[in-house]
């Protein structure tokens, strides 16, 4: 009888030791915390040090049980001087954790603690993130960020989706593109102090584009590897071709582990 009680006690102790609070789990990836600035200090090689905070939390009941989805975001930060110090070449930081309720606490199911979203060293704010169902028991966060280089501006969707098991998929789909800041109205020559000729003006207009899109997860669409398709609806122009709510469908690519740019998608080659 004493042996049975001892085994039971050891079993309960082991279960209690394995179960943790969400904060304990997150601290395994972000061990340094600044009490002064109320954020985790996360150093990423070749990117700098970030001030990282939790900005979203969602829970869902799934086939695996109750899961918690945590989203962290951070900006490049100078902890010595107490100010944000991001440069154009730096991204903002994003971190995603999926926890499973177990043994009176939580266990880590999947994580991607050191990913990116944003530009100029700044991550999108909480209001710019949304939470979606991307398939049966596949939930994740989505945002959009923008950037500009030498008059070429653009935006991209960033998707971080739990695959229902032990992985976070990470996808980027171009959302907007515009080069009118670089090309202007094509009346002036970019390289010489004169007006464009008619032929030069036509070639310039052929190269101009201004495109935008909206995004929607198609829960009623045909799944691929358990992930719903995504519809991208495009408006604007690319040279002499116009788009007025034209729809393109992105499917999940199981081989690459992310959503692919749709075939014929006009924003596909519009890097910024």
Describe, in plain words, how this protein is organized in 3D.
This protein is mainly β. 14% of the residues lie in helices and 49% in strands. It contains four helices and 16 strands. The strands form three sheets. Strands 1, 2, 3, 4, 5, 6 and 7 form a seven-stranded antiparallel beta sheet that branches. A seven-stranded antiparallel beta sheet has the order 8-9-10-11-12-13-14. Strands 15-16 form a two-stranded antiparallel ribbon. The radius of gyration is 24 Å and the shape is flat. The chain starts with a helix and ends in a 13-residue tail after the last strand.
Main sheet: strands, sense, barrel? 7 strands, antiparallel
- Tell me the overall shape: flat
Strand content: over 45%
- Radius of gyration from the alpha-carbon trace, in angstroms: 24 Å
Low-confidence stretches are 1-17
Q: Report the helical percentage.
A: 10-25%
Distance from N terminus to C terminus (CA atoms, Å) equals: 71 Å
Mean pLDDT: 93
In total, the number of strands is: 16
Please work out how many helical segments DSSP would assign.
4
Determine the structural class based on helices, strands and strand pairing: mainly beta
Q: From N to C, what is the helix and strand string?
A: HHEEEEEEEEEEEHHEEEEE
Describe how the helices and strands are arranged.
Blueprint: H1 2-18, H2 22-29, E1 33-34, E2 39-44, E3 48-62, E4 65-78, E5 83-84, E6 93-102, E7 105-116, E8 129-135, E9 138-149, E10 152-162, E11 168-178, H3 180-183, H4 198-207, E12 209-217, E13 230-238, E14 241-250, E15 252-253, E16 258-259
Antiparallel strand pairs: 1-2, 2-3, 3-4, 4-5, 4-6, 6-7, 8-9, 9-10, 10-11, 11-12, 12-13, 13-14, 15-16
């Amino acid at each position: 009888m004493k042996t049975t009680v001892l085994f039971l006690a050891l079993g309960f102790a082991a279960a209690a030791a394995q179960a943790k609070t969400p904060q304990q789990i997150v601290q395994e990836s972000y061990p340094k915390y600044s009490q002064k600035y109320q954020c985790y200090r996360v150093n990423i090689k070749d990117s700098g040090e970030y001030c990282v905070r939790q900005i979203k939390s969602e829970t869902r009941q799934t086939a695996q049980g109750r899961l918690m989805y945590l989203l962290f975001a951070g900006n490049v930060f100078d902890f010595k001087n107490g100010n944000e110090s991001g440069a154009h070449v730096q991204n903002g930081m994003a971190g995603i954790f999926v926890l499973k309720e177990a043994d009176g606490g939580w266990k880590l199911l999947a994580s991607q603690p050191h990913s990116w979203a944003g530009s100029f060293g700044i991550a999108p704010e909480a209001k710019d993130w949304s939470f979606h169902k991307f398939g049966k028991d596949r939930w994740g966060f989505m945002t959009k960020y923008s950037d500009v280089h030498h008059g070429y501006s653009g935006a991209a969707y960033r998707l971080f989706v739990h695959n229902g098991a032990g992985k976070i998929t990470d996808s980027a789909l171009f959302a907007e593109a515009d080069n009118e800041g670089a090309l202007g109205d094509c009346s002036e020559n970019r390289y010489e102090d004169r007006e464009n000729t008619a032929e030069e003006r036509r070639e310039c207009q052929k190269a101009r584009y201004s495109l935008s899109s909206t995004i929607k997860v198609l829960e009623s669409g045909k799944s691929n590897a358990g992930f719903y398709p995504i519809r991208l609806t495009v408006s604007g122009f690319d040279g002499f071709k116009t788009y007025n709510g034209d729809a393109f469908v992105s499917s999940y690519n199981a081989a690459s582990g992310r959503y692919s740019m749709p075939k014929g998608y006009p924003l596909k080659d519009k890097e910024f």
